[in-house]
Every structure is written in C-alpha cells, then in structure tokens.
Amino acid sequence: MRILVVDDEQEICNFLQEFLTKKKYEVVTALDAEAALQAVKESRPHLVLVDIRMPEKDGVTLLKEIKAIDREIGVIMVTAIRDEKIAKRTMQLGADGYITKPIDLDYLETNILVKRLL
Amino acid sequence: MTEPKVSHEETIVETLAQEDLKRLLDDHQKLLVLYGFANIVSAILDREKLLNEVMNVVFGLIHAERGAIFLYDAITQKLTPRVWRSRQAGEKGNEIVLSNTVVDLAFRGHKSILCLDAMVDERFKGSQSIQIQSIRSCMCVPLESQRRTLGLLYVDSRLAAGSFSREELTLLSGIANQTAVVLENIELVQRLSEERKRVEAILNTLTVSILSVDGRGAVSYMNPQAEKLFGVKAAEWLYRPYTDLFEKNPFQPLLGLLGPALSEGKGIRLEEVACGELDRPLLLQVNIVPMREGLIPKGILVVLDDITEKKTLERQIASAEKLSAIGEMTAGLIHEINNPLNIISGRAQLLLFEKKDDPDIAKAARIIREQVDRASAITDHLLDFARQKPPKLEVLSLHDLLEKFLETMDNSFVSHQIRLEKKFVPLSLRIWGDAGQLEEVLVNLAVNAMQAMPQGGRFTITTQKVKEAAEVSFTDTGCGIPPEHLSKIFVPFFTTKGRGTGLGLSIAHGIMENHGGVIRVQSQMRQGTTFTLVFPLVRGGES
C-alpha cells in the first residue's frame, strides 16, 4: 500500500515517513499541494495524509482536487487545530478520516488499516 | 281778532325736530344693537354660529330682502356663500349669485358698494346676474381684517330701487369690520389649536424624554416619554418644583446640572451621564436648552435620552470584536505551537516503538509524550477560551434554565453523595441569556463544587430578586478557597488543581460579562464556597 504524506513541515513528513515505512508501507512525501498533485498523478497512492493548513493552496482544496482525479484514493485530513465545522466540511467533500495533531500514531495506523480493509 | 299765527316755518321745524328725534332714537337703538352684537360675537369661537349671528343682526337692523356672507377660500380661490337668508318664504338663499362686477369692486377693490338702482347703475351695465336675479338695490361690503380680505357681506332687494341708505351702508360696514376681526380671531385660535395638536403629536411620538421648567423652577411640561422615565403622571407634577422631581432616585446627578442652567440660562449638552446604581445602571444623554424671551431667561427645556441599552449593546459589540480578534490570534498561535508538539510527540512515539525493550528510553519517551499531550490539552482549552462567541441573547426563564441543568446533573450529584437543595424565590425571573453558554457556566460551577466536596456534602441553589437584578447563588459545603486565591480564581490559567487548565472560571467570568452580568465569590475555609451569578432582569421581567 502506497501512502502520500503532505505537510509543509519537513520534520512532520520525516517522522511520519519513518513510522509508516517501519509499518511496511511505501511512503512518498510532498511539502505543498502542487507537489502533492504531481505525486498523485505519478505514483497513484492508495492513501494521502493531508495537512489542512498550508501556505499557498490549503488542504481542503487539495482534497477536492485529489478526489477529482480519482475518487478511490483515500484521503485522511490532518489538522493542528480542531475545528468541527471544517471537519464536517471535509467529510462532505469525501475525506475518509480526520485526525488532530499531535498525531497518535496508533490511532493513525488504525485509520489506515480501516481504509485498507474497505 | 287775530288768530294765533302758526307759521309754516314753525311746523317744518317741529316736524324736523320730531324726525331728528326719531332718527336719534333710531340711531341709539342701532348703537345698542351694535354694542350687543359686538359683545356677543367677540366671545364666539364657532364660525357658523358667528355668521348666523351676523345675519340676525343685519336682518334686524336693515330692511334687506336677501342676505349672504361669502367667505374666501385661499385654496380654491373662490368666494363661497357660507350663510344666507331671505325674507321671501320658500326661497333658498343659496340662489344668491354674486355678480362678477360686485366681486371685482368690493372684494378685489376693497370698496363698500351701495347701489340704489342696479338696473340703471352704470357700474352694473351688462351684469347678467343682476339682470337675471332682477336686483334693484344692493349693498356689499368686504370683510377686511388688518392683513387681508376674508369675504363679503351682501344684502339686496328686488322690490324697490333705493331700498338702502348711505347710513345703512355705514352700519353694514361696521358690522362687517367687527365680523372680520372675530373671523380672524377664530382662525387664529383654530390655527393655534391645530399647531398645538401637531406639536403635541410630535412630542408624544418622540422617543426622548422632554420636560420644561419655567423661570421660577416649576415643572411646566412633561411628554409621555418623560412620564415613563420618571414613573410619574405629568398632571400631578405640573407647577411643582423641579427639584422635588429630580430628587427621586436615580435622577439626583442631574440636579447639579439643572440648577446652574436655570439660574444662568446656559445650555448644556452631555453625551453620557451615569445615573442609577450598579445593578440597575441608567445612562442618559442630557441636553438642556435655555428658553429666552428676548434676553430674559424664561426657564429651560430638558431633553433626556435613555441610552442604557444602546451603550450596553455597543459594549457587547466591542467586546465581541475584541473576542474575535483574540480568537483569531490564538488560533494562529495554537497552530504554531501544535506543529512542533506534533513533531516531539511523533518522535517520542517512534522512539517508544523502536526502543520498547530499553526501559529507560521507553520511560523517557512515554514521559515526553505525556507532557506533550498535557501541553496540547492546554492549547485545546485555550482554543475554547479564544472561541468564546458573543452570546445569542433571548429572553429566558431563569428557573426553567436551572431546572433543566439540575436534571442533567442529577446523576452526578447522587454518585458524588451530594444532597441538592433548591431555594427558589416564587417569582418568574426573566433574563436575557444564551442558554448554551449559561449552561456551560452552571456545569463549571457544579463541577467545581463536586471537586471541593470529595466526601460528599450539600449543594444549595438559591434564587432571589434584588432590585432590578436576578441573583442565583451556588453554595457548597466543601473545603473553601484560601483568601489569597480568591482574587485570582477568575484569571485565565490560574489553577490549584493538579489537573485542569485554569480556564473554567475565567470562561464563566467572560460569559457572565458578555451577558451584562456579574459573577461573585465568597468563601470560608473548611466551611464552603458560594458563587453568585447576577443577571439584569428583562425590564418588567418579574411577575
């Protein structure tokens, strides 16, 4: 299973990549929405972890664009700040999960497993 | 024998004397009638009545066959007969038609007309109305006041030429002059009364309170709004000293303004004067306008605008704007803090995952993670604090709100072995509030009380009405708050609990402030604590 991690913080990409690689996932990272779209087109990930707040294009817009490319690609939204309204909106836009930072890695893994089973 | 000689001349003289006497008596009679007329009509304030009275006197003094009074209507620019009379049985006076010639001469030319024989009068040559109505003699005098011509007084006769004399024309003119003066008076009184009604209607609809004080310091007028503000009836206060009125609570602060304004005839305008008390503030915009007659001060006009609600609203809006600015800033800050926390936590979790066999590293990693979670919990609460929304106020029944809250808390009280006591005042207390936010305050206080009574105890809720405010007190029998902490408990992040973020009471404080209310605390070590919430009542809110 291929996972794309999108976050404008390099360090976040790094530890998520390390963790997921250890969990035997194939991991690609992107530091902004444009790079993420490029990666989606090139490597067709099964799942994308999208940070909501990013400079330039934000995570919600990226979610829409990924779903427009392929509805089957799973998208889990990651946010540094809980906001019920945005959570609800991303779910309506087809997001498959919503987790807040600091990320509980066990919880993240459960979310990924669920997506894989579906 | 000579017969006494009665000269022809003597007979003439005698006849003349008799005629003079008769005329004199006649004139005297007429004067009396005129005098009586003047007396009667000057008191008349009804136009129709006046005109009828005039007709009575004209027909009493002058042997006219028909008569009418025409009044000029400035709007239609027409002379219309307002009253008419005829000695001919069955004839209607409204058949009297004025000839244009008469109108031109009398009304426009401001002249009294006496026509001895209209048929041969050069002035009426070709006048169709004169011909058709076969008028022989007529008199017509303008009703002239000082300023303008109000109409015409007209009499005629179709029986004989020369029915009227010059004296009669003079008499008619006298009557006309008197009539014009009274007509003018009636009009003035009418206009004055209309003006008064108009001004009163304006004053009644104004939302500001207006009252006037005369030069001697007596209340001379109050509009309904002022009656409402002072809670008095104007009729009971007219001509009483203004000081008595303003000595009433809460208007004393205005006394100091009115005195100098009245004695010095100076105007004062103050945007905001705080009257009233803490729990029932009254903010007034005050405008004192001196009244003068020429240069002499003649009292003052006091205009008061109750701006209490407007100002409260303004403050709420300002506070809402401030909150929203703080909210935005805090959200940004939390975002910035949560990202590094995320990395620290993530790394600690990785470490824990990789080195779970090394107890020292595993322990350290676990502690790092826990502390990050703690920091993150604080930012999470801070977010709640920052996201405080301005309350959506609606009229609430305080008791209903409390009952609903107690229902949801019932199980918790039981499981904490806390006995609940309700002491509700038997009044319906209506307040402006946001039910959701107030529930948050109540839950917060209840949870604090439970934590203060780990071994159980009594939790008493008391409501009462204190002046124009509703008060709810929550009294626990817990450990109490040390005096040195009492002043800090509403400060954000102040906490004495091992757990907790120290935001609960500060949020409660913020919510109460946004409701225009107050939260107070009283505490006795080892005896218990009482938190009191004070809400302004909806005006007229208790029943």
Describe this structure in words.
The complex is a heterodimer of chains A (118) and B (543). With 118 residues, chain A is α/β, with parallel strands linked by helices. Chain A has a single domain (2-112), classed as Rossmann fold (3-Layer(aba) Sandwich). Chain A has helices spanning 10-22, 33-43, 59-69, 84-92, 105-117; strands spanning 2-6, 26-30, 47-51, 74-79, 97-100. Chain A has a five-stranded parallel sheet with strand order 2-1-3-4-5, sandwiched between helices. In chain A, β4 (74-79), α4 (84-92) and β5 form a beta-alpha-beta unit. In chain A, α2 runs parallel beside α3. Chain A is globular. With 543 residues, chain B is of the alpha+beta class. Chain B has four domains: 26-190, GAF domain (Beta-Lactamase), CATH 3.30.450; 207-306, PAS domain (Beta-Lactamase, 2-Layer Sandwich); 311-386, Helix Hairpins; 394-542, Histidine kinase-like ATPase, C-terminal domain (Heat Shock Protein 90), CATH 3.30.565.10. Chain B has helices at residues 8-42, 47-61, 100-108, 128-132, 166-205, 224-230, 234-237, 242-246, 252-264, 308-354, 359-386, 398-415, 435-452, 483-486, 504-514; strands at 66-73, 78-86, 113-115, 137-144, 149-157, 209-213, 219-222, 268-277, 280-293, 296-306, 394-397, 418-423, 429-433, 457-466, 469-476, 518-524, 528-542. In chain B, strands 11, 12, 13, 14, 15, 16 and 17 form a seven-stranded mixed sheet that branches. A five-stranded antiparallel sheet of chain B has the order 2-1-5-4-3, with helices on both faces. A five-stranded antiparallel sheet of chain B has the order 7-6-10-9-8, sandwiched between helices. In chain B, α1 (8-42) runs parallel beside α5, α10 (308-354) runs antiparallel to α11 (359-386) and α13 runs antiparallel to α15 (504-514).
